[in-house]
Amino acid sequence: MTNRTPLDRLRSLRLFGTLAGLSFAMGACTYTGAEVVTTASVPNDYRQRHPIAVQEADTSIVVFVGQARGGLSASQRADVAGLARTWVREGTGAIVVDVPVDTPNARAAASAAREIQATLAAGGVPPRGIKLHRYRPDDPRTLATIRLSYPKIAAIAGPCGLWPEDLGPSVLNRGYSENKPYHNFGCATQRNLAAMIDNPADLEQPRSETAAYTARRTAAFDKYRKGNPTTTTYPETDKAKLSDTGK
After folding, report:
1. Who wins on pLDDT, 233 or 163?
2. Beta bridge partners of 149
3. 149 lies in a domain?
4. What pLDDT is recorded for position 58?
């Protein structure tokens, strides 16, 4: 049996350390776990940082009523009729009509509320879809109004205008040197897009196909059977051209 020198022991330790490090690196490369590690608390994508949520929200209009006039004006009657049409299409609950009481214009407001009910009924709102609610305003000095509101499914994003960090380099803004978008970036775009959506269900699923235009389909098939071109020609197209270049 031979005695090992301190130099041999040192070489053995180095070889063991090298093999251990190599096996650790190879094991890390072959890891196939599905868990995703999040390194930041705020997503960099503005669509994830300011998502558009589909939820139930209220839509409302206000009717101003003076002291000496009962009923509705022409523009107010049009607003109420428009509210009835939108309720038939998108309403998910009854229309609540808030009528003021114990105010200088309470008598005129009661008269206007009766006309509002008649206008809503003429627009297709059933009697069970209208609920009268009487209220006393908190500030008697303000003009009490009649409020009409109903719930509907809406797309909502925000709130916007939140600035948790400075935009410039500072001690509080650690992400400035990482060239990441600021927190409020993209919030206004998401909020405007949510406000323009006519049917929030379009965010989740496509609409079903509508029936084909039978008259146009019949004309196209008739041209196809005769061997004629099926493209549509518009005689007014040439009138908008500035020159004959390209013919």
Report:
1. 163
2. 60, 96
3. yes
4. 92
**Which tokens in the block code for residue 247?**
């013919």
Instruction: Please give the structure tokens belonging to residue 238.
Output: 């040439």
The answer as to whether 45 is a domain residue is no
Supply the CATH number for residue 142's domain: 3.30.1330.60
Question: What burial class does residue 55 get, using C-beta atoms within 10 Å of its C-beta: 0-12 exposed, 13-18 middle, 19+ buried?
Answer: exposed
Residue listed under structure tokens 């309403």: 91
Q: How many CB atoms lie within 10 A of CB 123?
A: 16
Closest CA to 150 of 110, 211, 90: 90
The predicted-structure confidence for 94-148, as pLDDT tens digits, reads as follows: 999 999 999 999 999 999 999 999 999 999 999 999 999 999 998 877 889 999 9
Would you state the structure tokens that stand for residue 64, as one six-digit string? Answer: 């101003």
- Residue 17 forms part of a structural domain: no
Question: Has residue 27 got a pLDDT over 50?
Answer: yes
Measured CA to CA in angstroms, residue 127 lies from 2, 61, 123 at distances of 107, 19, 11
